Amino acid sequence: MNLKLAKFSDLVPSKLPFVEGKLEGHKNRKNYSIVGPGVAEDISQSVKISRPHSFNLGAVSAMPRNGSGLHSHTTAEVFIIFSGKWRFYWGNEGKDETILGAGDIISMPTNMFRGFENAGDQEGTMFVVLGGDDPGIITWLPSVLEKAKTTGMALLNDNTLIDLSKNNIPKDKTLLSPISSEEIKKFDNYNLSEIEKFICKFSKRTNHEVKLNENFKITQIIGNHFQNKTFSPIINQNTGFNLSILKSKKGKINNLKFSKPTVMFSQIGSWQIQIDDFEVNLNAKDTISIPINSNINVSIDNEHESLLNCVTQI
Q1: Are strands 241-256 and 217-222 parallel, antiparallel or unpaired?
Q2: What is the dihedral of CA 142, 147, 151, 154, to 10 degrees?
Q3: Amino acid 1: pLDDT
Q4: Is it true that 2-199 and 203-313 share their CATH fold?
Q5: Class (C level, CATH) for 2-199
Q6: For 83, left (φ over 0), alpha (ψ -120 to 50), or beta?
Q7: 284-295 tens-digit pLDDT
Q8: Which one of 15, 77, 162, 292 has the largest count of C-beta atoms within 10 Å of its C-beta?
Q9: C-alpha closest to that of 311 among 246, 255, 253
Q10: Whole-number average pLDDT of the chain
Q11: Strands across the sheet with 29-35, in order?
Q12: How far is Cα of residue 90 from the mean position of the Cα atoms in its chain?
């Protein structure tokens, strides 16, 4: 069972996960692959739970004024802010933006350039859920690749990362060609009001809470299922996975059973998770992969309201 448990303190981050990782504003960042490899371009990135779940779960931490350059994904990318204040910006020129804080969630549309930056005054952390077992590759704006090359970092034509200051280009490979101006025009642009429907603010979540029992409430963020029950999601978007959040201070919920790949990770509080005869405490930022069709009991005994995130394949 320990192979299915990911204590955050045991995770090994990549400090150079992407091609822009040596640039100012991007280099003071860590990338964690918790479930699946994610989209990191660092082939040596440590993956804690490698078994396919039909989605990937990762985390990123960054120091103030550090984050990611403008890039696009072909699969869903959902950010769950654990701590700090973050600026998300998007569009082919990155002119549109919004500031989100701890507990806020944003699901970025595919086929759109986006970036993020720690807008706070101390290190911040976010969890990231990516759709699919293979979340695909990153498409960078040409300007990002050009700036990265001045630091020696580049991508090969198979999208692997190379440090040209230390290594030569392999004979059977070439440098990746940046996308053209015509290709850039094929990417979507959204204004702030259009993006807001993909945002769930922590302060407004209580309006969507549903009672599971006397002590537990659930908020359905994405997808419409938790276990075998149907709920209305706050964000209506087809990501390929459900994102549900359990909330409680003291109490227990028994006999949960999931027929599809599922992970749980603590946002706030220390949760006791019993899986058949195995029991474990999940502290904030810890993750566990739930075996299919196992009997699950979840309990909490805390002074303050606690939050447990649950991601399940649709």
Answers
A1: antiparallel
A2: 0
A3: 55
A4: yes
A5: mainly beta
A6: beta
A7: 999 999 999 999
A8: 77
A9: 246
A10: 94
A11: 47-49, 29-35, 55-62, 124-131, 77-83, 105-108, 199-200
A12: 17
At 59 the pLDDT is: 97
Domain limits of the chain?
2-199, 203-313
Q: What's the CATH superfamily of 203-313?
A: Jelly Rolls (2.60.120.10)
pLDDT at residue 299 is higher than 80: yes
Mean pLDDT of 8-32: 94
User: Please, is 168 exposed, middle or buried when counting C-beta atoms within 10 Å of its C-beta (0-12, 13-18, 19+)?
Assistant: exposed
User: What is the predicted pLDDT for the residue at 3?
Assistant: 66
C-beta of residue 26 within 8 angstroms of C-beta of residue 68: yes
Which strands, in side-by-side order, build the sheet including 67-72?
A: 96-101, 85-90, 114-118, 67-72, 139-140
Query: What b-and-e string marks burial along 213-240, b requiring 16 or more CB atoms within 10 Å of the CB?
Result: eeebbbbbbbbebbbeeebebbbebebb
Distance of alpha carbon 108 from alpha carbon 113, whole angstroms = 9
Q: Say which residues have a Cβ less than 8 Å from residue 198's Cβ, sequence separation at least 6.
A: 106, 107, 108, 109, 235, 237
- Residues 99-129 pLDDT 10s: 999 999 999 999 999 999 999 999 999 999 9
